[in-house]
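We modelled the chain as a single entity of 170 amino acids. Its sequence is:
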Amino acid sequence: ELEPLLCQPGHTSRLVWTSSSNARRSAFSIEDIQHRRGKEPYSSSKYASDMLSLALNTHKNKQGLFSSVICPGLVMTNLTYGILPSFFWTLIMPIMWLIRIFTNTFTLTPYAGAEALNVLLTVLFQMDLDDEMTEVFFSKLLELERAVRRNLSEKTADSEHYQQYISEIQ
């Protein structure tokens, strides 16, 4: 739906996806791209985002669309605090601040997590992506899009027929 806006002739657009260091190939199945039968939906969806970014670059760079992925690391938000009781976070937070000295994946504060966008411009990491699987994934996404559009079209047609029938019997 956004393609006409993002791929305008003479303009450059940039998509930035938020991924995770938890995005693992082992959690993703090309036969189950919607992860209906999987056990790690977060990891699978983040890996899918990584592949989508690569596929978009392959297919849309010539149209001025450039896609990137950032991994801001562990950011302490209300979502994070909701995973475990608050007293637990209070106990381990000093340890997390110490770990932060040695690793860049413990950004901890939302501000530092947002700074990952600045790092995007300076630090690059190789992702565990396969070009061939990325192409298959992109094709499956396009098939899924066509199926969804077809279903919506059929439902709209059914609804219009129903409305027409109701108006005829009134």
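As a brief sanity check on the tokenised model: The two ends are 38 Å apart (CA to CA). The CA atoms of residues 52 and 138 lie 7 Å apart.
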